[in-house]
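Q: Joint fold for the lines below.
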Amino acid sequence: MNKELLRYIGMRFLQFLLVIVIAVSINFLVPRLLPGDPIESLIARLQTSGGSQEMDVQAVTDAFRAKYGLDQPLINQYFNYWRDLFRFDLGVSLSSYPQSVSQMILRALPWSVGLLATATLIAFAVGSVLGAKLAWPRSSHLIRMFVPALMVLASIPFYLLAMILIYLLAVVWRVFPPAGGASPTLIMRFDMASALDILQHAMLPGLAIILGSVGLWALGMRSQTVSVLGEDYITFAQAKGLSPRRIFYRYGMRNALLPQVTALALSLGHVVSGAVLVEVIFNYPGLGALLYNAVRGQDYFLVQGVVLMLIFTLAVLLFIIDLIYPLLDPRIRR
Amino acid sequence: MTRIPYLRGTAASIRRNWREGRISPALVWGLAVLALIAVFSIVGPLFVNAENALVGAVIPRQPPSAEYLLGTDAQGRDMLTLLIFATPNTLKMGLLAGFIGVGLGMVLGLLAGNFRGPVDGGIRVVADALMTVPAIAILVVIAGNIEQMTTSVMALVVASLAWMFSTRTIRAQVLTIRERGYIEVAKVNGESSIEILFREIMPNLLPYIIASFVGTVSSAILAVIGLEALGLGAPQEITLGNTIYWSQQSSALLRGMWWWWLPPIIVIALISLGLFLTSIGFDRFANPRLNRQ
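A: Joint structure:
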């Protein structure tokens, strides 16, 4: 029994390592296969910003290549890449030059995680309870009126909801600020004023994400609950004379939640990439906006860093799900 | 022979399906919304002057009026005309990406389900891995690196991450269909494996292929619009996503020009709602057991 569990964990860990190695290799190779040369575009940018100064382009290009190690054979570059990763050295940003990529990622991370993790958890909790209630034959008819509204919400992507919210709550009625992560004049401290300011700025993007995803959670939970309620053990519980409340929470909802938890873990992984569009529309200083700006500014090292961060977080989350799942559902241990 | 009843496509079979409750209200509503969109983009061009969609054709920044039903944007384009020409362009990209995505998914799903073994393992690992990665982050990286963006390239980019879902659905279906009794009968009758694939398995896959096509088109359209709203689309084309991008660039939100961004959002929401309802309705159609509730 114990040996079996250990083998299960060992196998999953090996899979996890394999995913990481493949992801890092792809992340290393793809930018080098794509057309476009980061150094040439950097030089071009320097030339335009530096006016018409004469410079020996070839010499400068070669110097940069040597500096970033791009003049070495591919296999050496690959091993250097791994060596740097273990030092958490993701290179230096090209677009905002002296800053290191890891610095920029660390600065953007709390914004994305704070906003998206909170919004995702709220949407998950509200949506799951609502979805389960929708499937329960004893719920009132009033709650069933939600279904069409939820379908409409689920089909509008949340960046479009975000635009409607900005217009209503920041332009017509000026309740919340339309953009940014905090007031530009705010001096960040650990006090109420800073917290309130940040919360106020997070309200609109948070609301957009919650409204946009609550319908999906509710509809998913609804169909899960419907299929669980058709199981024999529900009939058996009813025959035993258990109270409907107990059947609903302990037998129905609990079993229907299992697949939802997997989906939750996956969407928490997406938190790291940030909701790119929402962050761009709200000019929110998170990872999604960072990735977008890096792509637009052809900042290869920054793009690589953000994508790597994303894959790593997802792999860790999937590994954790695999570890938790046997606890939730003993059948999986086999 | 495994001809499924509703393939005969006659009025009688539709009537019978209706009576048996296989055609759900969701399917009717979904198809009705989609038909509305189709009429809008096919008949619409007959009523408007195409030149009004060009920059500077009309007085800029006009709110909706009798002359300009949906107003005009800051570049002097009539919004209604713009919308009428943008909708089919966006639909075209979604349909193209859907065809490529589902075509790829069908081939890979059939390969994986039919041959099992290492082919199956490889396809499954890649599909599962790609499904967990947030598509928009990867698409932003790909689209940002393409220099000459056109609508067809856009469809290709989006299709590159749109095949996993149909691959998985079709693989799973092939696995269950292979175990059915009539496949055994066909084998005993001496049908070759190619014949079995095309004459026994394929017709039974059709409902699932159509269902995943609807789903893929829907997510492809949303991905296309998302990329365009970020300014990563084909800049010279008139599409719904580009209209959103232009309105963002001219801060139409803060200037209160709601007639610039709200109509495209409503059209997008209708397209996506129509496809969503159709896919739910089609699920019921393909698996009547779902109706038990």
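Q: Anything notable?
A: Residues 40 and 58 of chain A are 10 Å apart (CA to CA). Residues 114-286 of chain A form a domain with the MetI-like fold fold (CATH 1.10.3720.10).
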